[in-house]
């Protein structure tokens, strides 16, 4: 897979300490440290999870360094001490392209698509009511039609989670629960809470439940294990949050639970068990070895293989100058990877994943426009050419596996948004820092979650 990496020639803000992932058995390598005096501390503005983060100074304390060293005993995870890369790139793009703001906000196109796909699924379930669940027509329909349709439903709920179908928060939640009917199990409201945390705390160990645990990485670190994970990944994503970070149930969780159980009971009573089995089987295939399901792996796994350690850089004489800068930014650049192929048509453009994490408030219909507006920021980043190939490479490439994820122990040191601008313009000049007030405003509205300005405007909760 051809990958282009930025090769900046100007001083930039990078991780103050990065431990690249490396091959098994080298977990005792000496940690590499790179000074970055331009970084500052970053604190969460979210009250409900403020207990996870503690105040840190502008320089890393000895206690924090010891904590990082302990975490680095986990082989092969890429441990970062900076924040996730999307906030800083969002600020850089907004400064360079303020017209991006016009793309933000709901799109009504999601609504009819949800009902169209529900109609397809309920029709297929009805037509298969007399077929055995292990018959060829049942299995083929569940994989080809059902797997594709329910993956589309999963991603419609993802879109609705960001309040991008209606302006009303309550209306978005109701639509998410309606979409949930074809999945067969309660899902929408639990996903909402975990997914917003995935955006705000990307890569944070113990918060971002998209990350594999150390136990998963140890057990599944082989071809058979990776095949098992790719086949049953929908179960990993469903069960992992309960072991890592439980949610506080809300009234909406209860409404979601009751609605789906009532619909399932009604379906079984009127048509028997087979239609319900079809819906649940469709959900399984949607998160299994299915072409569309490859996006789960493609989005955040480091598919370019292990980064070289500082010791490797020293041995090859590439520890100084531009090559070293290139090594540093590579960790940030590949933490999220986009895919621009035709399967996005079936998947709400979720392949535009760098764009989505940079601007979760931009709906799926306008993510291609966002990329065109800020092409100079996105073209140099690594990108996937094929989702099915991602799954194949993940399973068969011994240098890639469950360890290939970027992790951080806390929110991380703040990255100056000029990092991305400097890498693009390649001029020896500093970019003026945006006003703090504007920055705080963007931080509140960026995720289209149920808090901040979005909630104040709707006044529905």
Unreliable segments of 5+ consecutive residues: 1-60, 426-438, 453-461
Major β-sheet profile: 3 strands, mixed
Helix content: 40-55%
> Number of helical segments?
21
Distance between the termini: 47 Å
**Structure class:** mainly alpha
User: What is the number of beta strands?
Assistant: 5
Read across the widest sheet, the strand sequence of neighbours is 1-2-5
**What does the radius of gyration come to?**
22 Å
Order of helices and strands: EHEHHHHHHHHHHHHHEHHHEHEHHH
> Strand portion, in percent?
under 5%
Structural account:
- Keywords: Lipid metabolism, Membrane, Oxidoreductase, Transmembrane, Transmembrane helix.
- It is found in: Membrane.
- Residues 27-44 have a biased composition (Low complexity).
- The chain is mainly alpha-helical.
- It has 21 helices and 5 strands.
- A 3-stranded mixed sheet has the order 1-2-5, with helices on one face. Strands 3-4 form a two-stranded parallel sheet.
- Residues 1-60, 426-438 and 453-461 have low confidence and may be disordered.
Describe how the helices and strands are arranged.
Elements: E1 18-19, H1 62-71, E2 78-82, H2 85-96, H3 110-127, H4 136-161, H5 169-179, H6 188-200, H7 214-219, H8 223-231, H9 233-244, H10 251-271, H11 273-286, H12 295-298, H13 310-316, H14 322-333, E3 338-339, H15 353-358, H16 367-373, H17 375-378, E4 383-384, H18 387-396, E5 406-413, H19 418-425, H20 436-445, H21 452-458
Parallel strand pairs: 2-5, 3-4
Antiparallel strand pairs: 1-2
Helix pairs in contact: 2-19, 3-4, 3-11, 4-5, 4-6, 4-11, 8-18, 10-11
Subcellular location: Membrane
Transmembrane segments: 109-128, 134-153, 174-195, 215-239, 251-271
Biased composition (Low complexity): 27-44
């Amino acid at each position: 897979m051809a990958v282009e990496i930025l090769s900046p020639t100007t001083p930039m803000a990078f991780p103050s300490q990065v431990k690249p992932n490396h091959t098994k058995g080298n977990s005792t390598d000496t940690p590499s440290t790179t000074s970055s005096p331009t970084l500052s501390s970053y604190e969460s503005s979210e009250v409900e999870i403020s207990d996870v983060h503690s105040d840190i100074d502008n320089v890393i304390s000895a206690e924090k360094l010891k904590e990082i060293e302990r975490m680095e005993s986990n082989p092969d995870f890429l441990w970062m001490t900076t924040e996730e890369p999307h906030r800083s790139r969002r600020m850089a793009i907004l400064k360079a392209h303020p017209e991006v703001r016009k793309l933000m906000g709901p799109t009504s196109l999601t609504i009819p698509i949800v009902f169209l796909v529900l109609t397809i699924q309920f029709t297929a379930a009805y037509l298969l009511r007399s077929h055995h669940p292990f018959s060829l027509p049942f299995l083929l329909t569940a994989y080809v039609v059902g797997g594709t349709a329910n993956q589309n439903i999963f991603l419609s709920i993802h879109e609705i989670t960001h309040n991008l179908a209606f302006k009303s928060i309550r209306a978005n939640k109701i639509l998410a629960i309606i979409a949930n009917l074809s999945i067969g199990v309660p899902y929408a409201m639990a996903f909402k809470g975990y997914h917003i945390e995935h955006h705000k705390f990307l890569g944070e160990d113990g918060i971002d439940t998209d990350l594999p645990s150390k136990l998963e990485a140890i057990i599944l670190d082989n071809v058979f294990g990776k095949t098992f994970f790719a086949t049953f990944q929908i179960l990993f994503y469903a069960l992992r949050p309960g072991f890592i970070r439980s949610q506080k149930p809300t009234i909406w969780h209860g409404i979601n639970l009751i609605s789906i159980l009532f619909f399932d009971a009604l379906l079984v009573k009127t048509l028997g068990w087979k239609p319900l089995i079809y819906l649940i089987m469709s959900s399984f295939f949607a998160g299994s070895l299915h072409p569309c399901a490859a996006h789960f792996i493609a989005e955040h796994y480091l598919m370019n293989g292990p980064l070289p350690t500082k010791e490797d850089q020293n041995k090859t004489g590439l520890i100084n100058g531009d090559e070293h800068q290139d090594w540093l930014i590579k960790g940030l650049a590949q933490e999220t990877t986009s895919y621009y192929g035709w399967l996005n048509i079936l998947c709400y453009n979720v392949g535009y994943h760098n764009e989505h994490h940079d601007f979760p408030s931009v709906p799926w219909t306008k993510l291609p426009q966002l990329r065109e507006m800020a092409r100079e920021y996105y073209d140099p980043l690594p990108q996937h050419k094929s989702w099915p190939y991602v799954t194949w490479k993940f399973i068969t490439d011994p240098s890639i596996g469950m360890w290939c994820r970027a992790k951080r122990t806390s929110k991380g040191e703040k990255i100056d948004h000029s990092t991305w601008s400097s890498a693009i313009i390649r001029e020896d000049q500093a970019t003026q820092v945006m006003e703090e007030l504007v920055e705080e405003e963007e931080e509140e509205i960026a995720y289209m979650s149920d808090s901040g300005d979005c909630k104040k405007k709707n006044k529905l909760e």
